[in-house]
Structures are given as C-alpha cells and as structure tokens.
Write a structure and sequence with these properties.
Number of strands: 7
CATH architecture of the largest domain: 3-Layer(aba) Sandwich
Bound molecules: guanosine-5'-diphosphate
CATH superfamily of the largest domain: P-loop containing nucleotide triphosphate hydrolases
CATH topology of the largest domain: Rossmann fold
Helix content: 40-55%
Length: 333
C-alpha cells in the first residue's frame, strides 16, 4: 500500500483479494489505514471498504460490557478459546474512549488475554486511541467489516461503562451481553438501568467457589428485574446465566443460549431488520458528524460565530435567530 493520493483501483482490488483470503498482515494494514486521520488514507480505506462490502455481514456480532474488575478480559479469553476450540475464527475489538495515545486507559493498561492473543484463530485489536466516542465507534465499525471480509466468524466488541459507550456498542452488534459481578442490586454494582435494558443476555460471572450462592441469588434477582422490564424485542426475553471465566464453567451453555437467541431473532426476521437499521443510522451519524465538522471549520462561519454566540449568551440575540444566521452563511456557499 503506497501513500499516493490517487486511488488505484487495481491496487484496491488486490488488497481486497488478500484480505478475503485471510491475509493477516494485509488486514492489519487496512485497519491502520482505516484508523488513520490522513485524508489520503481515509479515501483509500473507504474505497477498500466499498470493494469489500459484498464480503461482509457473515459473522456473529456480539457486544460485551461490564464494569472494571467484573472479569471481562478473563471472560473473553475463556469464551474466545472456547470458540476457537469449536473451529471458529474470533476477532476481539474494543471501544474505550478513555484510551489515549499517551497515558493510561481503563482497558488497556495490563497485558490482557495473553493466551487468546497467541491463538492463530484469534485476532485482537485494541481501541483506536483518542478522539470522540463517535470517532472511535466509526473506526470500530469499519474494523468489524474488515474482519468479516477476512473471514472471522465471531466478532466480540468489548467496552467498559464510559459515558455512552454501551449504547454505542449495542447499536453495532446482533447481541449485547452484560457481565455482572455476583452481588445483589444494580445500584450496588453501579449499573445504570438503561444499560440493563440493552442486555439480551446477562451473565453473572465469578460463579465459582464460595461465590456460588451469592451468584445464584444475584441471578434470581436479575431474572425478576428482567421480567419487569420492557422487552427490547418481541422474539426474545433476556436470559440470565452464570459463568466462571476463571474455571471455564458455563461457557458452553452460554454459547448455546447465544444460538437460541440468534435462531429466535432470525426466525422472526428481526436480525436482518436490526442490521439494516444500524447501517442507516450509521450513515446518518456520518452525515451529521461531517456536516458539523464542515460547519465548525468554515472560516466565514467561524469569523461570525463567536460574536453571535456571545450575543446569545448576553441575551441580545435569540438562539434560533443566531442558528438561522449561522446556517444561512454556511449554506449560501
Ligand atoms: P476486567 O477488568 O473486567 O477485564 O476484569 P479481569 O478479567 O481483569 O478480572 C478481574 C479480576 O477478577 C482478576 O483478578 C481475575 O482473576 C478475577 N476473575 C475474573 N473472572 C473470574 C471468575 O470467573 N471467577 C473468579 N473467582 N475470579 C475471576
């Protein structure tokens, strides 16, 4: 992949072919390009994604969230190893808006998923660093598509509860899983009600040793809570399961439940609709982001904007009148 600004379609086709054949090095390079903010890289990455679109969509997309310490990396390692043991290829992506090029992040500091990272049928890609949640999410969606084109069967997208990151992940997957600790009450665990409502499967992890009774009690409590919630879809009522990521207990049952979920939603024709809606929502958010970006970087707008904002703050100009004036300047161009 050269850095030339002109897009060479035979070069794009060649890269696409290699990705379809599962060439890891090429996949990694394409991801780097998709994550780059350089306009020429972006243009190439978009051309490549377009070329690869017909080869995407074949994976099971699973979101996994849980507060730090609940056992996400241990769980993904155990679950990922189970899946590769079933002969499946697994990609693990992360959305962590706290991650920066320098400095720490909630998910990235320790060495994570050591065993899985050595597995030839697994591919682990940490969160793109820096930027807004929207920016991080866009790149993760694109990386997901690239991984699908490269033949991964299961894509796991992990996130920690930072801001809106759970909603963002839930909006790009087929199934959203919430990992909880074996303790009672979502208030105790710092879980927002909204996040509970996103979950298709709730997993009480660390159900081992002396934690088993607490985990069972928590599971019952969450089962009752789920019954009181407004169901997300017609065809599925969220299930509560117990696992021990450490002792590798309950993983197979979980995989079975994921299969039941996918069957139920596919049979109801809902999964296809959900993906279609996710794609169009993605398009609209791209349009909104891009418009805002153009607006904010427009020099003519910028020259008037701060004075107008000041007038709005001082109560000299109505916010609507200011907004109209700003848009008027922008749209006349
Ligand atoms: P993360 O911050 O959510 O990624 O959590 P980690 O995977 O790093 O796990 C946090 C701690 O919980 C570690 O000390 C793990 O060994 C422990 N842990 C994770 N899963 C289990 C489990 O199933 N049972 C028990 N007893 N401990 C676990």
């Amino acid at each position: 992949m050269s850095n030339s600004t002109t897009i060479n379609s035979s070069e794009i086709e060649d890269i696409a072919d290699q990705i379809r054949q599962g060439n890891r090095r090429m996949l990694a390079r394409a991801i780097t390009m998709a994550e780059s903010i350089r306009p020429d890289h972006q243009e190439k990455a978009q051309a490549l994604l377009n070329e690869l679109m017909p080869s995407t969509g074949g994976s099971i997309r699973i979101g996994i969230s849980g507060t730090p310490g609940v056992g996400k990396s241990t769980f993904i390692e155990a679950f990922g190893k189970f899946l590769t043991g079933e002969g499946l290829k697994v990609a693990v992506l992360t959305i962590d808006p706290s991650s920066k090029r320098t400095g720490g992040s909630i998910l990235g500091d320790k060495t994570r998923m050591e065993e899985l990272s050595r597995d030839p049928n697994a591919f682990i890609r940490p969160s793109p660093s820096g930027g807004s949640l929207g920016g991080v999410a866009r790149r993760t969606r694109e990386v997901m598509l690239l991984c699908e084109a490269a033949g991964f069967d299961v894509i796991l997208i992990e996130t920690v509860g930072v801001g809106q990151s759970e909603t963002t992940v839930a909006d790009m997957v087929d199934l959203f899983m919430l990992l909880l600790a074996p303790a009672g009450g979502d208030e105790l665990q710092g879980i927002k009600r909204g996040v509970m409502e996103l979950a298709d499967i709730i997993v009480i992890n660390k159900a081992d040793g002396e934690l088993i009774p607490v985990a069972k009690r928590a599971a019952n409590e969450y089962r009752s809570a789920v019954r009181l919630m407004r169901p997300k879809t017609k065809s599925w009522t969220p299930k509560v399961l117990l696992t021990s990521a450490l002792k590798k207990i309950g993983i197979e049952e979980l995989w079975q439940t994921i299969g039941e979920y996918l069957d139920a939603r596919r049979d109801a024709g809902e999964l296809e609709v959900q993906r279609a809606e996710q794609s169009s929502a993605w398009m609209w958010s791209e349009i909104e982001d891009s418009l805002m970006n153009h607006l904010k970087t427009d020099t003519e707008v910028a020259s008037k904007l701060s004075a107008m904002e000041e007038d709005v703050r001082d109560g000299k100009l109505s916010p609507t009148a200011a907004a109209r004036a700003v848009l008027g300047i922008f749209m006349k161009k």
